[in-house]
Amino acid sequence: MSTTPNNGIPYAQEGTLDPAASLNQALDTIDALLQIEVLGIQNDPPGSPSDGDRYLVAIGTGTWAGKDGQLARYVADPGYWQFFPAKVALNKADGLLYINGSGGWQVANRPAALPQITGDTSSDLVGVVTQMLGALNGVYWDNQVT
């Protein structure tokens, strides 16, 4: 049985659950949005993406035109990008937490003393989430304190 690329959620086998295709589409969405960790923030797609690669779209160009501020996730088979609304993501390129506010993707406001979030969600999810929750203490989201 195959699984989703980011979180290993098992797909339902075709023909064993009606409607399996809809269930698998839902699992893909959960996989894209659970533990949002992206490879970077870009305006256009990378040249050779891998299955499950996720990026934050800044100002979309090319095939990402009109997708500003969304999360882009690549599906290798058959080879297309999915787009989702997202509010918060950890950027692996710089290790910073980003929020999607009125001005697009921005580094979350944080005190200078707050440490950079580190770790790998695949091996230390609890540690990364603990750091992220600590980072949200006193963070302003569109002028509202969390």
- Strands, count: 10
Radius of gyration over C-alpha positions, nearest whole angstrom? 16 Å
How do the SSEs run, as a string of H and E? HEEEEEEEEHEE
What share of residues is helical? 10-25%
Beta content comes to 25-35%
Low-confidence stretches: 142-146
Query: Termini, distance in Å?
Result: 41 Å
Strand line-up across the major sheet: 1-6-7-8
Largest sheet, in brief, is: 4 strands, mixed
Overall mean pLDDT score? 80
Supply the number of structural domains.
3
Shape: globular
Number of helices: 2
Structural category? alpha+beta
Please describe what this structure looks like.
The chain is of the alpha+beta class and about 150 residues long. The protein has three domains: about 1-35, no CATH class; about 40-85; about 90-145, no CATH class. The protein is about 20% helix and about 25% strand. The chain contains two helices and ten strands. The strands form three sheets. A four-stranded mixed β-sheet has the order 1-6-7-8, with no helix packed on it. It has a four-stranded mixed β-sheet with strand order 2-3-4-5, with helices on one face. Strand 9 (about 140) and strand 10 (about 145) form a beta hairpin. The protein is globular. About 20% of the residues are buried.
